[in-house]
Design goal:
The structure is a single chain. By secondary structure, the protein is an all-alpha fold. The protein has 3 helices and no strands. It starts with 5 loop residues before the first helix and ends in an 8-residue tail after the last helix. Helix 1 crosses helix 2.
Amino acid sequence: MGFANPRLRTVLFLYWQFMQIGAGHSVNHMDICLRHAGTLMGITNTAGTIPGIVGVSVTGLILQYTGSWALVFQVTAGVSLFGMVFYLLFASGGKQFD
């Protein structure tokens, strides 16, 4: 890019990346089940919000009892690794329901 301002370049790049992620996430619900895509979106958004709520409390407990940020990041990495493996084994973009 020909931008002289590295901050602007970074912001635009991150914006573009988040748009790509959001586009794939939203379309997948319609690929799986077009008629119930809205319901699926609600279920998956609820399921995706719960870890964000619980994670704050778990982080606080880990820091309170161990004082270790390293353990917080190790738990986060473990949960992410589990999610990746689960997705690779069971996820599909094909039509699942009528």
